[in-house]
Specification:
Helix content is about 35%, strand content about 25%. It is α+β, with helices and mostly antiparallel strands and about 400 residues long. It has one domain: Peroxisomal Thiolase, Chain A, domain 1, CATH 3.40.47.10. Strands 1, 4, 5, 6, 7, 8, 9, 12, 13 and 14 form a 10-stranded mixed beta sheet that branches. The chain has a 3-stranded mixed beta sheet with strand order 3-2-15. Strands 16-17-18 form a 3-stranded antiparallel beta sheet, with helices on one face.
């Protein structure tokens, strides 16, 4: 029995900053961003958007299409938590009007938690083949103004329906995974911006990849030539390219830049113009690949590498299913990305400096351009959400 991703929907903010605008404000050459890290735009959530609204908006097409009937497990992966106790997924469950017969849990392990959620969902479906699980990865990448990580900021969410006999991608059972206690990236509870040791994080990312691949290869006897495409965790697109190059060299299978582009480019298109989506990053890449790759990917094997700082890495694989194009949300994704509103630098800074009130008072937030749901205010320390669905 095949188990895997049956539907996949992606959502990001309706606002963005072009990195040329940021480069001008920081007095640097735009090529530092466009070429150096491979990023062009970063998604910026307005004050009435958070990980809950991003997540619910990503999953809304599944709700609209009746795909959430029979879902008895909702796993919400994020490192942008809004409450130390209540899972953000509970809010999403309510906004999506899901059945009360449903387990709902929030998962955290930096950018890896989306893959942890997917693997747990696969286990649930294996035990209950007639049931479905909903996995949502939703995050807002945020660094201090003027910091080295600023240009990699972004936001977004991916909703994945997991089932037996999936229509998109069957996830193969073998995985290689690796854990090591390191401090390459972290965000203490008392901070709203992450801290990162960039060069060290790159080293750990590569090391976890090599170790994960080694285990995977021992389990499967596969080599790099057994894959038609790859999706990597994408803190910035150049990182994915560097990772594949390092893996190829380690395996004494050096690869030219043109070959890397053919294997990875489809997976990088969305991330280049949305920025880092943390736990959703690799799955934004998967959506991008399935939506935009010009070749028919039916029965093609995709190598998947998920990395979360701190750290956990996992290499696994999936096979694209026949008829996958019939169940994509490619047009919806394209319309979203093509119709966003560009922010000036001052607008970006104003939004960045806007802080969610923490005094427990009564607050109603102004309405910006969001998806079907918005973060409407706070009352007595309780977050309030509004559905804009007719």
């Amino acid at each position: 029995m095949n188990i895997g991703i049956d539907r996949l929907s992606f959502y990001t903010s309706n606002y963005y900053v072009d990195l040329k605008t940021l480069a001008e404000a920081r007095s640097v050459d735009p090529d530092k961003y466009y070429i150096g890290i491979g990023q062009e735009k970063m998604g910026i959530p307005p004050p009435d958007e958070d990980v809950v609204t991003l997540a619910a908006s990503a999953a809304y097409p599944l709700m609209r299409d009746g795909e959430l009937d029979g879902v008895e497990l909702l796993l919400f992966a994020t490192e942008s938590g809004i409450d130390q106790s209540k899972a953000a997924g509970i809010y999403v469950h309510g906004l999506l009007e899901m059945s009360p017969r449903c387990r709902t849990v929030e998962l955290k392990q930096a950018c890896y938690s989306g893959t942890a959620a997917l693997q747990l969902a696969i286990g649930f479906v294996a035990r209950n083949p007639g049931k479905k699980a909903l996995v949502i990865s939703s995050d807002i990448a945020r660094y201090e103004l003027g910091s080295p990580g600023e240009a990699t900021q972004g936001c977004g969410a991916v909703a994945m329906l997991v089932s037996a006999n999936p229509r998109l991608v069957a996830i193969e059972p073998e995985s290689g995974y690796y854990t090591e206690d390191v401090m390459d990236f972290w965000r203490p509870n008392y901070r709203s911006e992450a801290l990162v040791d960039g060069k060290y994080s790159t080293m750990v990312y590569i090391h976890a990849l090599l170790e994960s691949w080694k285990q995977y290869a021992e389990l499967t006897d596969r080599t790099l030539t057994d894959f038609d495409r790859f999706c990597y965790h994408i803190p910035f697109t150049k990182m994915a390219e560097k990772a594949h190059q390092k893996l190829s060299r380690k395996l004494k299978s050096p690869i030219e830049k043109a070959e890397i582009a053919g294997l990875l480019e489809g997976s990088l298109r969305y991330s280049r113009i949305t920025g880092n989506c943390y736990a959703g990053s690799m799955y934004v890449g998967l959506a991008s690949l399935l939506d935009t790759d010009g070749e028919d990917l039916t029965n093609k094997r995709i190598g998947l590498y998920s990395y979360g700082s701190g750290c956990v890495g996992e290499f696994f694989s999936g096979v694209v299913q026949p008829g996958y194009r019939e169940v994509l949300y490619a047009d919806q994704h394209r319309n979203l990305l093509e119709n966003r509103t560009e922010l000036t630098y001052q607008q970006y800074e104003d939004i960045f400096n806007y802080g969610v009130p923490v005094d427990g008072g009564e607050y109603v937030f102004p309405q910006y351009k969001t998806g079907p749901f918005r973060f409407s205010g706070i009352s007595q320390h309780k977050r309030e959400y509004e559905s804009l669905v007719d």
